[in-house]
């Protein structure tokens, strides 16, 4: 039966749709039943094989765990991978504020108790 599914494109498409439908059904159990039917503990490849599919679950309609290598390609490049570009020197700012008179404030003498 598996060779017939591999040879006939129509049967292969039907098997893929049936597998995707089964995965969606299994993952939508109510919260109370998830203790018995834990979706995260399933080996999806074994269930794909039961539908006479030889393809990995990630290639069958995108069902299954995500491919992290492909997901990482869309991220920003690493700083180490980027070419080194020296930072421009910081601009020197005036030492006097535009709001000050330019005179330093005088320190007040502390009063001592006698």
TrEMBL record:
SMART domains: DUF4217 (SM01178). Residues 58-114 are annotated as: Disordered. Keywords: ATP-binding, Helicase, Hydrolase, Nucleotide-binding. Residues 1-61 form the ATP-dependent rRNA helicase SPB4-like C-terminal extension domain. One of its GO terms (molecular function) is helicase activity. InterPro entries: SPB4-like_CTE. The keyword RNA-binding does not apply. This is ATP-dependent rRNA helicase SPB4-like C-terminal extension domain-containing protein. It comes from Homalodisca liturata.
């Amino acid at each position: 039966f598996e060779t017939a599914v591999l040879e006939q494109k129509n049967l292969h498409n039907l098997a893929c749709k049936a597998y995707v439908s089964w995965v969606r059904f299994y993952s939508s159990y109510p919260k109370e039943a998830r203790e018995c039917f834990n979706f995260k503990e399933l080996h999806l490849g074994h269930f794909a094989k039961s539908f006479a599919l030889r393809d990995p679950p990630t290639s069958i309609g995108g069902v299954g765990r995500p491919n992290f290598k492909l997901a990482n390609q869309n991220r920003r490049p690493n700083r180490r991978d980027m070419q080194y570009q020296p930072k421009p020197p910081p601009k020197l700012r005036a030492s006097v504020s535009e709001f000050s008179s330019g005179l330093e404030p005088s320190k007040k003498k502390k009063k001592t108790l006698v």
